[in-house]
Amino acid sequence: MTSSQPERPPRPNLAFRQLRGRRSPAEFAALVRRAAREIGERVSCDARYIGRVEAGEIRCPNYAYERVFLHMFPGRTLTDLGFAPRSAVRGRAARTTAETAPAPRVPGESRGAAEPYESRETHGSRDRRDARERGPRAPHQLYEPHEPFAKDPLNHEESDVLRRAFMTGGGATVAAATLAPLGLTTGATAAERPLRRAGTSEAAALEEAVRRIRLLDDRHGADGLYRRAAAPLRAAYELLDAGATRQTTADRLHAGAGELAISVGWLAHDSGRFDDARSHYAEALATARMTGDTALEAHAFCNTAFLARDAGRPREAVRAAQAAQRAAQPLGSDRLMSLLALREAGGWAGLADRTGCAQALARAHALFERGRSDADPEWMSFYGEAELEGLEAQCWSTLGDWRRASRHARRAARLQDPHFTRNIALYTAELADDLAREGRPDEAAEAGLRVLALLDQVQSSRIQTMLAGTARVLLPHRRASGVSEFLDRHASVPRRV
Fold first, then answer.
1. Are residues 330 and 212 in the same domain?
2. Does one domain contain both 231 and 302?
3. 119: nearest Cα among 250, 11, 213, 262
4. Shared-domain flag, residues 256 and 280
5. Summary mean pLDDT of the chain
C-alpha cells in the first residue's frame, strides 16, 4: 500500500552537523561510542550513521542513541539536536511485517541500538530503492574519511578498535569493519545499471577508497584485505562504464580506478597471489595507456617490476623498471625516479649482475638525496629512508652478500615510522634471514621473535614465507641461544590459507 502523503525529501540536520564541528564523521562516531560506554550503552555508531543523521535521513534516533546523545549534550533536547519529535514520526504509514522486522543486532550491543530508525522507511527498503534509483552511492558510503587529526585522541581509539578486531578475528574482520561502508552495486545487468552519470562526489569517494586501502595495508598487511578490496575495484569500473558528467571528472575516475587496481594488485602480490597481481597491474597499465596518464603508467610499471622480481623473472623486472623511468621522466619527481632505480637494481640483482645493481643503487641514492618535491605522487608516502635501506638490503641479500644485507636491514627497521607496522615486520624478517645465512643464529632468532610478536597485528604471506625460510636455515642451530624458542614459537603460529 502506498501512503496518501507525498514523499518528502529529507531536510539536512544542520544543528547536529554544527555539533560535530571540525571532527570527521569517523572521529565523531568514536566519541559517540565512548559516551555510550560511559552510561552502559553499546551502539555500533560509525561514520555512515553520522552521515545519515546529518543528511536528515534519520529524523529521530532510537532510544539507545537518544540516551547517548542526551548524555553527550546535557541540558539539550532532541529538538535542540535537530531531530523531529518522536510523536511526529511514529505510525505515519502502515508497514508490512517484513519492513518492520528488527535489524540484526551486533553481539554485545544494547537492546534497541540496532532497531529500525524512526523514519518513514526502514533501512532495507530505503537502501533497495536507493540502489535502483541512484546506482553508485554517495562518497561517505564508500569509506570512512581519512583521519585528518593525527593527534586527536579519537584517532587512537579508532586504531584500538581496528587492532582489537584484527587480534580477535583476523584481517577479514578488520576488512569487514572498515571496508563495509563501500556498498556500491556490482554485478548489475546492463538494464539495471544506473542512468545517472558519475560526478565529482563519486570521483572523490574513489580516491578516498584508495587511501583507505593503503592505510589498512600499512597497518595490517594484505592477507585479510585482498578479497574485500576486490569488490570496490569492480564498482570503480562500473562507475567508469556509467560515464561522467565532465571530462575532468572522467579523468579523475580513470586515474582513481587505475590506482585502485594497483592497490588491489599489491594486496594480491603481498599475499602471494602473483597471477592475480599481474592481472590487476595489467588492468591499471591499460587504463593509463587509454587515457594517456603517464603518472599512472609509471606507477603500474613500478609495481610490475617489483612483482616480476618476486616471481623470479628478473629480466622482466629490469625492463619494467626502465619503462617506468621513461614514463616518469617528465613528471619531475626525483623521489619517484629514485624508487624506480631501486626497482631496476632488484632486477639486476636477480640476474646476478653486481655491477648493474651497484650502478642502479648509486643512482637511487643520488636521486633520493635531492629531497622531496610537490611533484612526488601521493602513493609514495611509504618511500622514505627506511624503505630505501630495506630495498637495498634485499638487493644485497639476492646477491648473497649477507653481511651487507643485514646491515641495511637493521638500519631499515630502526628508521621505520611506527605507523607502518607491516614494514617494520618485513624489514625485521629480512634482518632475521640475513643474520641466519650470515652465520649468526642467536641474533637471527632474536629478530625472528620480534617478527612473531607482530603477527597478531600483521598478516602478510610474504613475511610468513620469509620466516619459514629463516626457520629452515636455523634448524641445525637449535642449541644456539634463543633458536629453540624461535623455532617452537614459529611452529605454533597458524598458517594462513
1. no
2. no
3. 11
4. yes
5. 75
Q: 443: domain range?
A: 416-497
Torsion of CA 133, 136, 137, 141, to 10 degrees: 150
pLDDT digits over 199-235, tens only? 666 667 666 766 776 666 545 444 456 566 666 677 7
Q: Which residue has the cell 643474520?
A: 435
Three-class secondary structure of residue 478 per DSSP = coil
Is 410 contained in some domain? Answer: no
Other CB atoms within a 10 A radius of the CB of residue 492 amount to: 8
Handedness of CA 228, 170, 387, 483 (dihedral sign): negative
Per residue in 404-427, pLDDT tens?
Answer: 999 999 999 999 887 778 889 999
Number of domains the chain is built from:
4
Residue 187: other Cβ atoms inside 10 A: 9
Residue 395 within any structural domain of the chain: no
Is the domain of 58 the same as that of 122?
yes
Distance CA 452, CA 450 (A): 5
CA distances from 407 to 9, 358, 422, 466 (A): 64, 16, 20, 17
Domain membership flag for residue 381: no
Cell of 141: 558510503
CA separation, residue 440 to residues 389, 408, 445 (Å): 21, 16, 9
Torsions phi, psi for 193 (to 5 deg): -70, 150
Q: Could you tell me if 310 and 433 lie in one domain?
A: no
Residue type, 149: F
Residues with Cβ within 8 Å of residue 481, at least 6 apart in sequence: 442, 445
Q: Choose among 161, 38, 43, 165: nearest CA to 105.
A: 43
Q: How confident is the model at residue 186 (pLDDT cuts 50, 70, 90)?
A: very low
